[in-house]
Write a structure and sequence with these properties.
By secondary structure, the chain is mainly alpha-helical. It has 15 helices and no strands. The N and C termini lie far apart (88 Å).
Length: 268
Amino acid sequence: MRPQAHGPVAEAVSVAAGTPTASRRIAAAKAAATDCRRGTRAGQTLAVTNPRPPVRRATHRSAARELAGRDPVLASLIEAAGPPVFRRPLETPFAALARSVLYQQLAGPAASAIHGRLVTAMGDPNSPAALLGLSDGELRTIGLSRAKAESLRDLAAKVLDGTVELGARRLARAKDEEIVSHLSTVRGIGRWTAQMFLMFQLRRLDVWPTGDFGVRRGYGLAWGVPPPSARDLEPLGDRFRPYRSVAAWYCWRACELYAGAEKSALTR
C-alpha cells in the first residue's frame, strides 16, 4: 500500500484524481509542489545571504581616516592637527561668491567692514538684482574700488542672465572643472577663487589647489622637501584621490604647525 500523502499538495492530487482530466491535473499539482519547494529553497538561500550594506557617502573625517592609512607622513600630520574643519556654509552660492570677490587683497577687518556696508545697502545679500541696483556713487561710499565694483556687477549680471548658474540642482550635477570654467568667466574670479568655492561652499572632496602657495609650502614642510611648484605638485596629489581637498587642508595646517603661521579663515 502506498503511503498516504498529507497537506495541501496531497489534497490537490486527491481532488484531481477523481476528475476526467486527472493525469493532467496531477501533473500540474506536482509541478506546483516542485515550484513551492524551489521557492522555499530560494527563500532559505536569501535568508542566509548577507545583504550588502548601504553605500555611505564619505565625509571629511572619514576621508582623513582613509588618508591616514595610506600615507605615514599624512597620518602624523592628522594626529597632530586633529580632524579637518569644513564648516557647513551659511550663505547662498551668490552671497558666498560676492564675499570672496570683495575680500580679495584686503585685510580681514577692512574687508569685513566693507562687506557689512554692502549687505546693508543691498538689503538682500542673496539678490543679484539688488546689487545691480546700487549706483557707482553708492558703491564708492561703501568703500569698493572701481575694479571690485565692476567684478561684483559682472558676477550679478551673469547670474541673472544664466551665464553662471548657481541653482542647487545645477551645481549638484555639474563636475568640478565645469564649475571652475563657468565661474572663471566672471571678472575677478580666477581658478583659485573657484576652487575655494568648490571646497568650502559646495564641500567637494577632491579639489587640489596647486596654485595656492600655502598648500605648496605646507606640502614641503610636511614631507621635508622644497616647496614644489604648482606644476610639480599636481601629480603628487594623485595618491590622495578622491580626497585631495582634505589633503590640501592638512597642507595649510602644516604651515601653522611647523612654521608658526597664524590660523586662517580656511582652517578655523
